[in-house]
Amino acid sequence: MKIVLVGYMGSGKTTIGKLLANKLKISFLDLDEVIEQGLEDSISNIFNGKGEIFFRKKEHEYLIDVLSKKEKLILSTGGGTPCYSGNMETMLNLADHVFYLKVSIPGLVKRLLLEKEHRPLIKNIDNGDLPEFIGKHLFERNNFYLKANHIIECDDKDPESLVAEIQELLT
Description:
EC number: 2.7.1.71
CATH topology: Rossmann fold
Structural class: alpha/beta
Protein name: Shikimate kinase
Mean pLDDT: 94
Subcellular location: Cytoplasm
CATH architecture: 3-Layer(aba) Sandwich
Pfam families: SKI (PF01202)
Number of strands: 5
Keywords: Amino-acid biosynthesis, Aromatic amino acid biosynthesis, ATP-binding, Cytoplasm, Kinase, Magnesium, Metal-binding, Nucleotide-binding, Transferase
């Protein structure tokens, strides 16, 4: 079984992915980590040094590679992954389940304010401007996210109950 988690940064893809992988006793991969290991560099260095077009091309290649090789896995993607290079269609074709972890704008703001320093995309955005920034991004990305097989509403739910909700949809 191949499961892919998509959603905006801070939506819980890595947290939920690791918990779910543990419950199902299958491997968990974070696509950004796979790319960093493969290219032996950090995502921010790749973006800054070689540009977004290079990064998106590599992201697409690694996505196909991971989903073509592994028999059973849970894959957490970057927030922008579904929006480029036909990646959402690739995920829908090569994975058994694609879950969109949907969090409201206020929910994302609350989560991301806590980890802003570790998020290069939003690190330099004023706290007051964060809701508008996230809202604009979500508007641009939502059409891709909504193509997922399953949409999981994540606001006000703890990770364990979200994992249980996903497990129910797998049976």
